[in-house]
Known about the structure:
Layout: E1 19-30, E2 33-44, E3 48-52, H1 59-66, E4 74-79, E5 82-83, H2 88-94, E6 95-98, H3 110-120, H4 125-138, H5 154-165, E7 172-176, H6 184-199, E8 203-208, H7 211-217, E9 220-225, E10 228-233, H8 235-240, E11 246-250, H9 254-263, E12 268-270, E13 275-279, H10 284-297, E14 303-307, H11 311-318, H12 322-332
Parallel strand pairs: 3-8, 3-9, 6-7, 7-8
Antiparallel strand pairs: 1-2, 1-4, 4-5, 9-10, 11-13, 11-14, 12-13
Amino acid sequence: MPSSVMSTTKATGGLAAPAAVSAVGLHKAYGDKTVLGGIDLHVPAGSVFALLGPNGAGKTTAVKVLSTLVTADAGDLHVGGHDLATDPQAARAAIGVTGQFSAVDGLITGEENMLLMADLHHLSKSEGKRAAAELLERFDLVDASKKPASTYSGGMKRRLDIAMTLVGRPRIIFLDEPTTGLDPRSRHNMWGIIRELVTDGVTVFLTTQYLEEADELADRIAVLNEGRIAAEGTAEELKRMIPGGHVRLRFTDPAAYQAAARDLREATRDDETLALQIPSDGSQRELRSILDWLDAAGIEADELTVHTPDLDDVFFALTGPSRLADQTQENVR
C-alpha cells in the first residue's frame, strides 16, 4: 500500500474510515519496565480521540511515540498516512504537539512567541506576521500580545501554547492533558477551541484524566491501564458495558412501599428512606414496563429516578486491579 494512503485497523461492512493515526502492536519499554505492551489504536481523520487513564498508564509515552519524539520498540505505526519507521520527517510535517508543560517562553511577548514559532516553520516574515496576527485574534490574545507571556494567566498561556502549535497548519494535533491546572471557565474555553479545530477538519488526539472532558469532546475513547488498552468505544458504548444501572423508586406511603417491595423481589430495599432500587439499563422499554406495572398494581411512587453508569464507573472498573480489567475487557471489546 502506498504511504499516501492512510492506514486502517478496523473494517465494518467494507473499508473503514481513513485513519489519521494508526498503531498496531505499539510496544515501548524502558529497561525492564514495559510502558506500552503492544497496544492498537485507530483514530479516524477529523475526529477527537481521547486516551484516558490514570497516572503512569502510558498516555504521555504513547503521545511521544506517535509524535516521533520517542522511537517505538515495535509496532506498525502510521500518522497522517506516513510510516513512522521509514518516513518520520513527513509525519512531523503533518502534526502539531502541545505537551503537558507549556512551550511558551515567559521572557518574551505572546506575539514574539508566535513569530519565533513561525521562524521555526521557515515562514517568510510577512507570512509569519500574518499567521501570528490571525491566530492571536482567533484565540482572543490580541490585547495581551505585546505583554511578556510570564504575565499571562494559566488559561491564556494554554491558549497561546495551542496557537503556537497551529502556526504550521497541522492537520493532526496531539494534546497531552491540555486543561490540567486550568480553572473551570478556562477549561470550558479550551473545549470550545478543540471543537472549532475539529470543525475545521483537524484531527485531535487528546490525553486526559478528566472524565467529563472525554465525555464532552471525544468521538471515541480508549481506556489505557498498565500499558494496555482495557476498552475502546464511544462514551455511550463504554457506559453500557459497565453493570450498575438501576431505577430508584421512592415512596412516602409505607404501605405502598411494602406492597411494591413484596412484589418486586429483584429490587434492593432501603427501609430507612422507603426506596427500592431495581436493576435496569435505563432503556425506554424497561421504564415503560415499570410504570405499567405500577399502574396495574395501583401503586403510586412519589419519585422515580434513573441511574446509569457514567465514565467514572467505567474508569474505576477498567483501571482497578488487573484481574478486574481482564474480566471486563472481552465484553467491552
